[in-house]
Every structure is written in C-alpha cells, then in structure tokens.
Amino acid sequence: MKPCIFCEIVAQQAPASIVYEDDLCLALMDIFPLRPAHVLVINKRHAQYVHELSEQERNHLFMVGNKISLAVRQSRLQPLAVHFNINDGKAAHQTVPHVHLHILPRYKHDSLAFVGSLLAKPLLMLKGGASRELLNEQAADIKRCL
Ligand code: AMP
Ligand code: ZN
Predict the structure, then answer these.
(1) CA Rg, the chain, in Å?
(2) 102 an active-site residue?
(3) Choosing a second label site near 10 at 20 to 30 A (CA), which of 21, 41, 97, 121?
(4) What is the largest CA-CA distance in the chain?
(5) Which residue from 83, 85, 105 is spatially nearest to 94, judged by alpha carbons?
(6) What are the backbone angles phi and psi of residue 126, rounded to the nearest 5°?
(7) What distance in angstroms lies between residue 127's CA and the mean position of ligand 1's atoms?
(8) CATH fold of 5-144
(9) Which of 46, 60, 100, 109 is catalytic?
(10) Distance 102 CA to ligand 1 centre (A)
(11) Ligand 2 centroid to 8 CA: how many Å?
(12) 23-75, pLDDT tens digit by residue?
C-alpha cells in the first residue's frame, strides 16, 4: 500500500514547512498552494474521515485551525478572508486520505488568480511544488503571529 504522505510528515520522514505542532495535530504549508500562505492542519493520528476522529481530536483540529487562521490574517500577506475547508472523501476531492483542515487565505480581487491556481495545479505538481524557501519564510511569518 502507498505510504500516507501526511503520516510520513508527522514521522519526520518527509519534508514540511511546519507552522505549529502539538500532541494531536500539526499545521504545515500546503506544497501546492491555491493562494499564498495556504496552510493545512492535520490530525496526527491517521484517519481518513472526520467521523473517525475522537471528539477530542475533532474539536482540537478546529480549535487549532481557528488559531492558525487568526495568525494567517495577521501575517505579512494580510489576507482579507480565509476558507476553512475539509474534503471528506474521494468524491469530495479529497486527494490525501488523511484528515486535514485547509486554511486557505483570500486576497483582494483574487477570484481569477484563485481559478488560475486551480487550473495550474497539475503544472505546479509536475514542478514538485512551491519553493521550499518561500514556504519556510511564510511558515516563519505565520508562526511569529501565533
Ligand atoms: P485534499 O485535496 O483536500 O485532500 O488536500 C490535500 C492537500 O495536500 C492539497 O492541497 C495538496 O496540495 C496538499 N499536499 C499534498 N502533498 C503535500 C505535501 N507533501 N506537503 C504539503 N502539502 C501537500
Ligand atoms: Zn496518514
């Protein structure tokens, strides 16, 4: 079976630009961001679906997601809004079958750029993702605002 990339990141066996970590969850920069400063909050224990989390894990995920969203809003990029999004199953476009909450910032007049990023995502995937240096910078900036 294919190893789960988020489990590998939790086990420090794959690279990641980490924003926050505690016993239950970990927040990292999305490597194929749909907008700048796109963060994922992942449950540390592997589970595909939200209903498979314990009540504590579910509540904690959203509590941490809320904190991260406030830090993202205060970060240098100064988004105007964020999407809180969970794709819960393949038919809902879940591509990594390990529960994660997207904190996806939105900026002034960025609707076209947002659609453009969606369409260009396969190209970014071919490229291997956003620059690690840039992701690390954004992670450090968000961390400072936590
Ligand atoms: P979803 O489509 O809701 O399952 O979201 C999975 C997200 O994980 C996508 O936004 C991907 O860009 C992101 N992703 C996949 N692999 C990695 C990785 N190695 N590091 C960070 N983010 C990743
Ligand atoms: Zn996993």
Answers:
(1) 14
(2) no
(3) 121
(4) 42
(5) 85
(6) -60, -35
(7) 14
(8) HIT family, subunit A (3.30.428)
(9) 100
(10) 9
(11) 7
(12) 999 999 999 999 999 999 999 999 999 999 999 999 999 999 999 999 999 99
